[in-house]
Write a structure and sequence with these properties.
The protein has 543 residues and is mainly α. It is built from 32 helices and no strands. Helix 2 crosses helix 4 and helix 18 packs across helix 19. It is elongated and about 100 Å long.
Length: 543
Amino acid sequence: MRCWAAMGLIVAVFWLIGCGESEQAKRAKVAGWVAQLRTNPDLADKDDFKKQLEDYADIAAPEFAKLLKERDKKVVLGALKVLAHLKRLTVIENIAAITKSPDSEIRKAAAQTLGVFGSPLAVKPLMEMLNDPSVEVRAAALEALAGPGGRDAPPFLQEVLPYLVEGLSDPHPQVRQAAVNGLVKLGQWSLQAIAKVMEQGSPIAKKEAEKAFREICEGFRKDLRENSDRLIRRDMARYIGELRYAKATPDLIDRLQNDADPEVRSACAYALGNIGAKFAVGPLQEVMNNGKEEMPVRLAAAVGLGLMGNEQGIKFLIDQLNSSDEKIRAAAVEALRTIGKPATRLLIEAAKSKDPLQRWGAVAALGETGDPKAVPILLRALKDEDENVRAVAAASLGKLRYSKAAPQLVLALADKSERVQFHAELALENIGEEAIPAVMEGAKRTATRFRAFRLLGRLKAQKAVPLLVEGLRDRKPEIRVIAAWALGEIGDQNAIPALQQLLGDKNQEVRREAVIALGKLFQSHSGAIARQDFMIWKQKGAK
């Protein structure tokens, strides 16, 4: 009994939603609705009429598209409204056909309908309409090129952007406004193009671009205030901050203090720092000093203050460098990197702290600032009693690519800590070619020879070939191995005889590396010969 009852319920549901209807019954219904619209075109403005068509859209769209051939303009315009509601790509060709209508009102409505689809299939007919004799039609087509708008970039973005930008300079205000509307629909995806016009465009285009910029920013501002999606609110705060849209400062402060989501509050703090509104200092300090607030938000508030040159924010971040929580320390370093050079002076002081954790954090952050003023304290930190501080000092010098630090970094290759040696080697590799002379000097010392030879290979130091050839005769097999590897990496043919002699070495690993290096050299050598032979053959063939 229960099974029969369940089946009966399913049948009833199917009947209610139309799933139980035959194809013939559905088509009969659609035909009735088409006839109603033909008789009363005003039905296209009734939401109830269009709503009932949705479950029959695949059948209804082609049938209503047939009305586009009617002589009655009202019927054609009504059919376009219905097709815009149903949004079935199968009818784009039918709509494109009436863009050639002698009636400008129909052409304009067709352009607007094509814009609703947001399909690449609509782009070509819309572009053709940009040359329409009617200003209203051209304006409608231009705006329609942007599609319906939305969060995602349309697939035809790069194709249509130049036309919208060009429209900002049109002599007709209506077309310029359409270009603005289209760019606003594209939102963040059009900002780069708008910025270029604001910088390089004609006076009239600049004015229109500024209008589009304001409207986009106001859209971001509205979403920040009202959107229920926390990720959208977060992204809007980020956009506003990146664009430095100062008018949104009150909204950012409100969301910083009242939004339920910590990511949104953090994004607002960063944005306020980017904008640099001084009246945001108080709210940011309040959040930073609030022990009940989540630490990522407090750190973001400190960054916001630091970006404005407020030392309290920078000091707060420096205090977090000696936190027992590794995640907080890492977040503080990243936050200080965001602030950059304004934090250098206080970080240099912190790098002299008695607390090794704070010294470590300060030295790590100094490498992220990109400020050459940090070099002396980093060189000093290379000799710190704490190996973690020495290691991060080497890494920071590598990030700054300070070539004059190369000799000290070469000395660090002999540090008692392998971590320090590793970071010193990476730092020298980051410095690059300018580090080669110092590395070659380091290769002359037993303690640093292995890592120095490896570096010379990575840097493909051609001038080091004689030194590496000499290394093939070193009494330590691991040095002979790394020298052979480096010569293979550099690829200098002059090393072939010395490597061939190594094939008789007593050590198997040395012989193996010599074979590999010779293989690399012969491969490049034979490749060059083959190319030369081909050119000779080609010349002979031409004769």
